[in-house]
Fold these 2 entries.
Entry 1:
Amino acid sequence: MNKNIINGLISATLLLTASASVMANTQGQNMDSTAYKMVLVEDVPGVTALQAGNIEEGLTATLSASKYTVDDYSRNVNLCAGYVQMSDMEKAEKACSAAVKSARSLVAIPSMSVRAYAYNNRGVMKLLNNDNLGALADFKRAAKVDSSGIYKHNVERLEAALNTVQTGIL
């Protein structure tokens, strides 16, 4: 993994919101405070298109990037978010799980905070696949290693929704 990839991982945090199967770029827009949030890794081919909502273009650029340009972890984190945005949950599950597997095994990933991206994005994918408990477990894993607001938000949001369902309040 080259130095640019590691620097890209360290500086990566573009937030997207996910509500049902729709996500929107939050920069310069009013963000729905109740939506679940996903992360994209910057400096990955296709990220600009993904940010702009050109999902197919972004996925194509990400997929066609050389392994020398982008590492598997960063590629799969962004593919996970893109496929979720397209509601292609089969491909999203594969990319999200591959990102988590890389996060667990790659020594070159610079910090636990960066590893949290994979768990967070997989949590949103699981949530949209109606796996609430799996989503909560992934959100908690992300929040455990990084106390960033995005992870706490997703945990608190899902716990509140689950508690509302348990008490019968809609």
Note: Helices lie at 3-10, 47-52, 55-64, 72-85, 89-105, 112-128, 132-145, 149-167.
Entry 2:
Amino acid sequence: MHGLQAWIFDLDGTLTLAQHDFPAIRRQLGIPAEADILAYLKSCAPAERLRLQSELDAIERELAQQVSPAPGAAELIRHLHAEGHKLGILTRNLQQVARDSLAVIGVLDCFAAEDILGRDQAEPKPGPGGILDLLSRWQQSPRDAVMLGDFRFDLEAGRAAGCHTCLIHPENSWPALADWHMPDCGSLLRFLQQ
């Protein structure tokens, strides 16, 4: 892990404390409880999709103002940035929500604007398109990259792109998908500093 050059992070639940109550969001939008929100929106008729997307965008913008950094997240990002690593964000949120969240936790300056990909800039995870776009722009090989996140979609996207994966979560819920497991970003930073 110490030799990896390209670091791609999920946002909510990885660099910020998880705050999305997805069951409540589904109820508010009238989306079936078992449905993936973004996949459901994609399946809607254009007018309905636009209406629901607008409501979802408003929910996410409000949540971005209340965001808190995950333990050790800001320090980890500053450490990797100081070492000259390529840093990217791949989130299923809006790009502007990601930028606002990174600003609130104090690390927006560590990311090039074009390296923060939201759902409108790349196919949503678990699709690998966003990772492959970043690696292409950075001229980096998947074997020199890691996708870090707190959910299986992050790990599945990393696997599909051919890069390493790291689960950032107290429990190792998907051991077959994660090359590394760290309970939080602070633990990862301590590991990298050894």
Note: The first strand starts at residue 6 and ends at 9.
